[in-house]
């Protein structure tokens, strides 16, 4: 016999719409998980969604033989500007996947370390020149880093975000587009059609994203290169299985992908609220690297840095939820019936704080739990992982960081990902470290060292 899945009381027609905060849905899911436990369900405008909040249920519904990735309502909105790109694609065997996966292997990513350091060095120079009294919007600056990095490494295109006062129009349009996509996922079509101003802004943001993508494509056609970056592969690659390339529109869609800066912002927050952790990480970097330029080989000799990054992603996964659906009628947790095609939201944020797995201190930031090879399966793609390592090592080599407001308490801002809200810092250049005026090749140094 099956056990009914609990659900909060709802209203006629709209169901549980009022149970979800439109600006911070994650907070609502978290509070409901506290109230209902491992599993509950919500019904909105007749559409029922099951939410799982435990590590055991997350593992069960992650079985790709039984459950398929499903596009959530907010992610589905991304197709307005991101098409069937990697982030929103529900086809694991797409041509894009097969063409691009080789470029994201650790060995391939190592070859673009110099470009990553190039962008991070621009951040360092900005902070050095502004000085210790400048209040730094760290989320904004890390967004500049990640956007500039993906454009340079993937498309050999410079946004030059650190050479302008405000964010690049692409970055502003992307941020507003993602925020509105999240809100649209919780609205009915009737409500959405009535929001004339929001719809006009949404369309304008998409036009900005398309405009930048078209500019990048035009520049590449006018100035071909032999460099096998993502853009070249998308434009000229041929899928071995189908013998097909990608149509123009698909290439435009893929030009717009952004890597997340959320992990970096959360890492800085956790380090500044955990002085002993910051001391240990600084000691590891100073002992093994010191003030010299590090190599890609050095990045693999910093276990505590890896632990800090893993623990950051455990507590604050920047993509806090995902959606799956069973291929057939199934029973999960040994007692809950789920029909074929039913949406199941994996509340990653709470699943990774499961006390049955992590203990009574599951909500605390303790990188030590990630040492000695534990939990190596936690997420961390090679590209984002190396980008995060380079950024954190470089920043801690050059600066002493403090929170602008010593009494700041963590608040979240949510689009499709999460970041700390209103989190500002100050950065004082370390007196015992040389200032950075040039960016030598860390790959060449690694080769020479070998």
Automatic annotation (TrEMBL):
Top-level division of the source organism's lineage: Eukaryota
Membrane-crossing residue ranges in chain numbering: none
Cofactor: FMN; heme; FAD
GO MF, any single term: monooxygenase activity
Pathway membership: Secondary metabolite biosynthesis
Pfam families xrefs: p450
Assigned keywords, A-Z: FAD, Flavoprotein, FMN, Heme, Iron, Metal-binding, Monooxygenase, NADP, Oxidoreductase, Transport
Family: In the N-terminal section; belongs to the cytochrome P450 family.
Name of this protein: Cytochrome P450
């Amino acid at each position: 016999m099956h056990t009914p899945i609990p659900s909060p009381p709802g209203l006629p027609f709209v169901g549980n719409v009022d149970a979800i905060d439109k600006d911070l849905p994650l907070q609502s899911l978290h509070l409901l998980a506290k109230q209902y436990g491992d599993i509950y369900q919500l019904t909105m405008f007749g559409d029922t969604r099951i939410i799982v909040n435990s590590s055991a249920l997350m593992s069960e519904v992650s079985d790709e033989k039984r459950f398929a990735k499903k596009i959530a309502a907010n992610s589905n909105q991304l197709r307005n500007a991101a098409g069937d790109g990697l982030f929103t694609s529900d086809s694991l065997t797409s041509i894009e996947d097969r063409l691009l996966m080789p470029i994201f292997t650790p060995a391939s990513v190592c070859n673009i370390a110099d470009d990553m350091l190039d962008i991070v060095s621009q951040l360092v120079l900005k902070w050095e020149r502004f000085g210790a009294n400048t209040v730094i919007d760290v989320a904004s600056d890390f967004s500049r880093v990640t956007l500039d990095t993906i454009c340079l490494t993937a498309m050999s295109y410079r946004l030059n975000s650190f050479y302008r006062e405000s964010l690049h129009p692409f970055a502003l349009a992307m941020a507003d587009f993602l925020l509105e996509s999240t809100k649209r996922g919780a609205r009915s079509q009737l409500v959405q059609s009535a929001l004339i101003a929001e719809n006009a802004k949404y369309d304008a943001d998409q036009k900005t994203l398309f405009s930048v993508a078209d500019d990048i494509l035009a520049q590449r056609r006018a100035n071909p290169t032999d460099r096998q970056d993502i853009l070249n592969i998308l434009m000229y690659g041929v899928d071995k299985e189908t013998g097909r390339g990608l149509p123009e529109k698909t290439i435009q869609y893929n030009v717009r992908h952004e890597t997340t800066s959320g992990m970096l912002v959360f890492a800085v927050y956790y380090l500044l609220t955990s002085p002993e952790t910051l001391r240990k990480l600084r000691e590891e970097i100073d002992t093994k690297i010191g003030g010299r330029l590090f190599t890609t080989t050095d990045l693999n000799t910093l276990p505590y840095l890896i632990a800090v990054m893993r623990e950051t992603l455990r507590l604050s996964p920047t993509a806090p939820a995902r959606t799956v659906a069973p291929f057939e009628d199934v029973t999960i947790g040994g007692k809950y019936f789920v029909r074929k095609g039913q949406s199941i939201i994996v509340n990653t944020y709470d699943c990774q704080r499961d006390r049955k797995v992590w203990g009574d201190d599951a909500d605390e930031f303790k990188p030590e739990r990630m040492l000695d090879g534990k939990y190596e399966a936690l997420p961390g793609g090679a590209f984002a992982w190396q980008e995060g390592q380079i950024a954190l090592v470089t920043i801690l080599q050059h600066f002493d960081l403090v929170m602008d407001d010593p009494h700041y308490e963590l608040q979240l801002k949510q689009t499709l990902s999460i970041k700390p809200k209103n989190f500002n810092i100050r950065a004082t250049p370390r007196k015992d470290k040389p200032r950075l005026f040039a960016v030598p090749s860390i790959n060449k140094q690694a080769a020479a060292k070998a």
